[in-house]
Fold:
Amino acid sequence: MSQKKALVVDDSTVTRLMIRKIISEKHPNWEILEAESADKAKSILPDHPDIDLFSLDQNMPGTISGLDLAENLKSNYPNSKIILVTANIQDAIKNRAKDLGIDFVEKPVTPEKIIPLLEKI
Structure:
């Protein structure tokens, strides 16, 4: 089986490190990429057509939100797992995530919230 790859997109360095640590402890052989904004994530996607997991924050600096990026990813990475990890818990955000068919995780990030979603990959 080929090595799995994850992209963690969040403007918080601490959150990116926490998610990286959770994934690495569960799956030490995974390659983990990071981006501090959805704009940055979009710029590195052409070099990585084989990402298995996307962890996206909603509110980040730049021109694209996490949900806007998720919408793009759903068509370009139809077999990938997408998780929206955000402190923005408005019903509109939760409903849009649900409509897109992606998982919603409320910050703060904990292994208990992330690991069950890793099991589905």
The mean pLDDT is 96. Helices lie at 13-26, 38-44, 66-76, 91-100, 111-118.
